[in-house]
Design a protein that fits this description.
alpha/beta, 4-stranded antiparallel sheet, 8-stranded mixed sheet, globular
């Protein structure tokens, strides 16, 4: 198994006029290669920011602290690894694809790191579209995004992400805003990426059925921190937040979590979930829990496992 992606005490702070907002707060985590790992959590918990930090796609006013490495090599926050080593499938294809550019133009740009000739680039683009289920690739290359269905647009994004045969692909909320049928198409497309040789993926999502269908491991994020990681989280959640998050889903009874998440930029001295946790004690509110491993490969940041 490849080394994959590692974060060590990673923090991302957005420096805004009159206020600093810490979106990722001291994350230490390992996303191993050779599998699909899901990063789940509520909207605004910092999932996408963590992924964009790894790709060097954060805006200039974002301050990144800590360390990120890929296959044992430090990532310096630049975009040089984007495409060749790490591919990106962004969220919402209707917004991610430029309506004024053809599919061919999108793929040509994605293929630039390979240094192909014009003819070679066109041939590679058609080959990619065939791999992702397009029966008439030349017609699709000539098309503009609005001429394609939502599912076809999503497959084009997957082709763009896989264009340079990266060792790793990051899919950022690939089902966000899609209806049930399109979500199922996205699920099939992500699984097809493994068939195309992309064995390592990080899928950032709030879509639990998608995570359940495609991911071998999960990480749970809350208020900028990863509270739990492991292969069996959906069946055996160990952190109180994970259990509450899953219980709040419609298919599990739609039981809302009491209280509210910390405000943007608010940093608590202890566990970020402590104010909403019925099991929290004084220690939980005053100190941050370390990472404990109550089961092999299952990491939890909660004092109940100390």
């Amino acid at each position: 198994m490849s080394e994959g992606l590692r974060a060590q005490e990673l923090s991302v702070t957005f420096r805004l006029p009159g206020q600093d907002i810490r979106a990722v707060d001291g994350v230490t985590a390992h996303f191993p290669g050779g599998q699909i790992t899901g990063l789940i959590g509520e909207s605004g918990c910092g999932k996408s920011v963590l992924g964009l930090a790894a790709l060097g796609l954060l805006p200039p006013y974002a301050k990144v602290e800590g360390e990120l490495s890929f296959e044992g090599i430090p990532l310096k926050g630049s975009r040089r690894d984007l495409g060749r080593r790490i591919g990106l499938i962004p969220q919402n294809p209707s917004e991610s694809l430029n309506p004024a550019r053809t599919v061919a133009a999108h793929l040509k740009e994605a293929l630039l790191p390979l240094g192909l000739s014009r003819a070679g680039s066109r041939e590679r683009a058609a080959e990619l579209l065939c791999r992702f289920g397009f029966q008439e690739p030349e017609a699709v290359l000539r098309a503009y995004p609005h001429q394609l269905s939502g599912g076809m647009q999503q497959r084009v994004l997957c082709a763009i992400g896989a264009a340079c045969s990266p060792a790793w692909i990051l899919a950022d909320e690939p089902t966000k805003g899609l209806d049930r049928d399109l979500r199922e198409q996205v699920q099939e497309t992500l699984l097809s990426l493994k068939e195309q040789g992309v064995e390592s993926m990080l899928v950032i999502t709030h879509d639990i059925p998608l995570a359940q269908a495609v991911c071998q491991g999960l990480a749970v994020m809350y208020a900028g921190q990863i509270l739990e990681m492991g292969p069996s989280i959906l069946k055996n959640p160990l952190h109180p937040y994970t259990a509450a998050f899953l219980n709040a889903l419609p298919q599990n009874g739609f039981r809302p979590i009491p209280g509210a998440a910390p405000r943007a930029g608010e940093r608590l001295p202890g566990c970020p979930f402590a104010p909403r946790c019925s099991d929290a004690g004084p220690t939980c509110k005053d100190r941050r829990p370390s990472a404990y491993e109550p089961e092999e490969g299952h990491i939890v940041r909660c004092f109940r496992y100390a």
